Amino acid sequence: MKKLFKKGKYFLLLLMITNVFGQTVKRLNDPSIVAQHKRMTFESWGDWRPYPKYFLGIQTNFAYATVWGMWAPQINRDYKNGDDIRPLKPTGEQNIRLAEVKFQEEQAKKIKAASDTIYKRSVQDFAHWTSATVDADPLWLLYYKRMLKPITEFPDNPQNFIEWRLKDQQTYETLNTTGTLKRLQEELDLIKEKYSMSRSMDMPRGKRFLMYHETLIKWRKFVEELRKHNNKTTLLLDYKNILKNHLSTALPQGFTPQTDKQIVQNIMQQYKNQY
């Protein structure tokens, strides 16, 4: 019996809850609120409900008088008689905000694209910045590796005419005696040092190729100067040998050159009786 009574209580409670939530909700349709909604959207600025009613020129609508009329607060009258402040009108604040948000989104996309481009370019530049990747640079592989190869093949401290790429030992001794080889060695050290720096230091790719180019120009000048000294010295030695051979055949055997004193004495002895 108690269980049946308990089940009945639960059934009645469930029935009451169902009855409460099952009732139809009445929709509130206030014309003044609807007019307010229209004013705050894009539809139109106006429809000032409640409307005024006059009898013999006297306002008889108490609702209008207290909302928009003479008894209304000043803020209500200023709102009714003021400018169109619809936020969703074509030039309304909300539409302006939406347009600004859209513009900012487009600007953000452009900035992101620019930053991504800068980042990718920075990564690419870093690949050429470090000295660890200089051997993989296309311009180095196509041109400068071949053009600068003679610098690495030339000895750091040449000790004979073969290493100096001279014609013979006599030319080497002549340049060494005059101090020309010492000056050429200093120029060679500068060229090799600049080449080593361009290959081992971390620097921008453009600056590295400028160093390659400067090194190549200095190396060409060095080779040209070495070739000129080689040719001039060889020509001088050839003339010297020719002159030596010519003098040895033109002078009689046993000829010994006289000193200036002997020449003067011979001339005075020859002309002493004529004056």
Automatic annotation (TrEMBL):
**Which UniProt keyword terms apply here?**
Signal
Signal peptide span = 1-22
Recorded protein name is: DUF5045 domain-containing protein
Species of provenance: Epilithonimonas bovis DSM 19482
